[in-house]
Structure formats: C-alpha cells, structure tokens
Amino acid sequence: MIPDDDPSRSLTVADPDDPGTTYVSLVGNTYAMLITGEQTAGRYCLIDMRVPDGGGPPPHRHDFEEMFTVLEGEIEFTFRGERHTVRAGSTINIPANAPHHFRNASGAPARMLCMCTPAGQDEYFLRIGDVVADRDAPPPRLSQGEVMERRRLAAELAPAYRSEFL
Questions:
Q1: How far apart, in whole angstroms, are the C-alpha atoms of residue 139 and residue 45?
Q2: Out of the domains of life, which is the source (predicted)?
C-alpha cells in the first residue's frame, strides 16, 4: 500500500543559477548543492560538480550508491582499479562499497551531476569544504596548514558519513 501524500514536503526546483544555491569549494572543484537530503527527507542529494583540468577526489569508497551524468567535457573514472573515460551525455553508476575516484585529465573544464542515495554526501561536503560566493568564484587560497587541517577533518568525519579513503 502506498502511504498518503506528505503535504509538509514541497516541490523542489533545482537551478544552479538560483541566488539561494550553496556553492562549496572542495579539492579544487566547485560543487553546487542543488537538492539536499533535507529537501528529500534523506532519500538522495543532487550536486552539480564543476571539475577543472586536474581536479578530482582521492581514491575512496562508501556504502551508498553514487551516479554521475557528465554534462560537459569528459572525466576519467577509476573503478576497482580500471580506468574508464566518460564523455558528456553519458551516465555511470558506482555501486555501494566499490573503490573508485575520478579525475579530469582532459585538458579542459568538465561539469557533471552527482546523485547520492541515500543523502549525506551533501552534508559531508559542506562540513569539509569552503562555501564560496558562486560557481565562478576561485577556490580560497589556503595555507599548507589549512590544507592539512581540511584533510584531517575529512578523514575524521568520513566514518560518520559512511565513507573511507583508500
């Protein structure tokens, strides 16, 4: 049986250009939090990722599904040690618990949507990254000490967000 409609939940329209969008600078990338776990009752989150040439996270894994749709450019995904180049228009799904990472090795900027289910990655990024003014804002200039502190915090909080760095 399908439960009754929950009128306390509202329609969400995700627009990366909306002035209310939160942008986070993380590992040289800029992530727009389009739909948060708070808006979906924890079911999923949707993040617009702008990845400059050379950008991408370190190898990691987590116990939730992660789907990427490349909108512009191309991204190299390493999944269980095997590299796959994914170009604009393609979508890939990373199964829960599988080791992976991505890198923009194309020589040009790339952009993709990332959906995580259940949500939580959005909160994690907000806790370990730096909020910036908009999608074109440069990443903050961090001292070596600040970079080390960000890495320490990311590692410390990873288990609470069901993630592990490899």
A1: 23
A2: Bacteria
